[in-house]
Amino acid sequence: VQLVESGGGLVQPGGSLRLSCAASGFTFSNYAMKWYRQAPGKARELVAAISSVGGSTNYADSVKGRFTISRDNAKNTVDLQMSSLKPEDTAVYYCNAYYTALRQYWGQGTQVTVSS
User: Fold this and answer.
1) Residues near 16 by Cβ (< 8 Å), separated by ≥ 6?
2) Most exposed among 3, 70, 82, 114, judged by the fewest C-beta atoms under 10 Å?
3) 65 vs 46: CA distance, rounded Å
């Protein structure tokens, strides 16, 4: 099983980034997909989630209206489009594939830094 995130980097406040997560080694379309983030000294928090077939999404209040999660079950990918980025969005962002609490997988994380 592999989840490989990409697309992180340094961006100025107000800018945009698109994170991608490429999945392999499991039946992607059976899993809900989530993006979490963890800032230094803080707990990991759920940012966005999308159901297995993509019909349902939900977002943390802090990113609603700014972030959009999407998935492509044909390509086994899940993306997180981030806009109007703020310094407080700075964190390591992790891709998560969730089936049950005992059957879930994590990527290695990608750093997003929002700074001028």
Assistant:
1) 81, 82, 83, 84, 85
2) 70
3) 16
Q: Which of 39, 76, 79, 37 is nearest to 57 (CA)?
A: 79
Residue 97 pairs with which residues in a beta bridge? Answer: 33, 105
Question: What are the tokens at 80?
Answer: 């997180």
Q: By CB neighbour count within 10 A (0-12 exposed, 13-18 middle, 19+ buried), where does 7 fall? A: middle
- Count of residues making up the chain: 116
Give the model confidence (pLDDT) of 45-65 as tens digits: 999 999 998 789 999 999 999
Q: Which pair of structure tokens corresponds to residue 104?
A: 């879930």
List CB contacts of 8: < 8 A, sequence separation 6 or more: 17, 19, 93, 110, 111, 112
